[in-house]
Amino acid sequence: MYAIEYHKPKSVADAVSMLAKSGGKALAGGQSLVAAMKLRLAQPGTVVDLSGIAELAGIKKDGNAVVIGAMARHAQVAASDVVKNAIPSLAALAEGIGDRQVRNMGTLGGALANNDPAADWPAAVLALDATVHTNKRKITASDFFKGMYETALAADEIITAVSFPVPKKAAYAKFPNPASRFALVGVFVAQLGDGSVRVAVTGAASSVFRATSLEAALGKSFTADAAKGAKVDASKLNNDLHGNSAYRAHLIPVMAARAVAAAG
């Protein structure tokens, strides 16, 4: 490591002020930022630790939505009775992230702000048509994710919470990298309250995306067989040492079918 200035504010306003003055980085769970700093892939002069801000914590039911604070740890989401009762697929997703250390340190807000192409949370946010709350505004899921490690967040914005509408049915299935537990392909399938179907895919491309061919198939018949029969265009999918684009295109309907079966 190297010398940095470290701040631990008690309010969002103070955190935003510190970040504006220093041009530094916000620290949530540190599962990505600290590793990047060790490798010198990130070298902020100032780190602003958000873990002391009480208003960023908490999980609650608000009407027909579950609101999860940005600093909620993955393990807290997985263990939450509120989440288990209202949207059990979110608890299951959180339980499958990384290993025990990652789940007890990593946060929902940190994962979304980082927007790793293979992270699990973006698929849930996009499929459930969630709303990302910041200190300045509310951002729809469709507008939030912009590209690889890129979001709609401005330099002076901090995620404060995420509001997930309660769906009729939803589930997440992923084919994990056995070493990292990141998704080689992860598919979140949701049948929303109005009956529409949204399918979000992570791990397969440069950023999370909606699989429209699967949405069309499942909109006609919300069954595993319908998901298996859908075709996915491989032209924009990842080619790497873990799997080529054709393999990922094959995996997406397979994972979608498993998710539909799990959703009931």
Description:
With 264 residues, this protein is of the alpha+beta class. It folds into 3 domains: 5-49, Uridine Diphospho-n-acetylenolpyruvylglucosamine Reductase, domain 2 (2-Layer Sandwich), CATH 3.30.43; 58-165, Uridine Diphospho-n-acetylenolpyruvylglucosamine Reductase, domain 3, CATH 3.30.465.10; 169-263, Enolase-like, domain 1 (2-Layer Sandwich). It is 36% helix and 24% strand. It is built from 12 helices and 14 strands. It has helices spanning 12-22, 33-38, 74-79, 81-86, 88-95, 100-105, 108-114, 121-127, 141-144, 212-220, 224-229, 245-263, and strands at residues 5-7, 25-27, 46-49, 59-62, 65-69, 131-134, 138-140, 145-147, 150-151, 159-165, 169-176, 183-191, 197-202, 209-210. The protein has a 5-stranded antiparallel sheet with strand order 4-5-10-6-7. A 4-stranded antiparallel sheet has the order 11-12-13-14, with helices on both faces. α2 links the parallel β2 and β3. The longest helix has 19 residues, at 245-263. The mean pLDDT is 95.
